Amino acid sequence: MLMRNNVFPEEIHVKAGTKVVFVVINESDNDEHSFEFPDFGLTYKVQAGETIRIEWQAPNSKGVWDAGCFLTQPGGVHDGMEGLLIIE
Length: 88
Ligand SMILES: [Cu+2]
Hints:
Elements lengths: L1 E2 L7 E4 L4 E8 L6 E5 L4 E5 L4 E7 L5 E6 L13 E6 L1
Parallel strand pairs: 1-3, 2-8
Antiparallel strand pairs: 3-6, 4-5, 7-8
The protein binds copper (II) ion.
Copper (II) ion binds next to loops.
């Protein structure tokens, strides 16, 4: 997962019920971002230039959910940085 120039991945596909590892890279020079699945309480901040590794157990139910960076405005999306989490 690459966050660069305030662009968040459009679609993140995972298989239901599996354990997933995300490697999230923030290539921004100055901007802190976050990697979030708000419906699942998953929230990680990623500093500029930082790479983090997230292990996540995907739920068994399939569906489409919000994903994005919601860092600067609580309840809002940071600069269009949103995508979809697709559990299939
Ligand atoms: Cu952001």
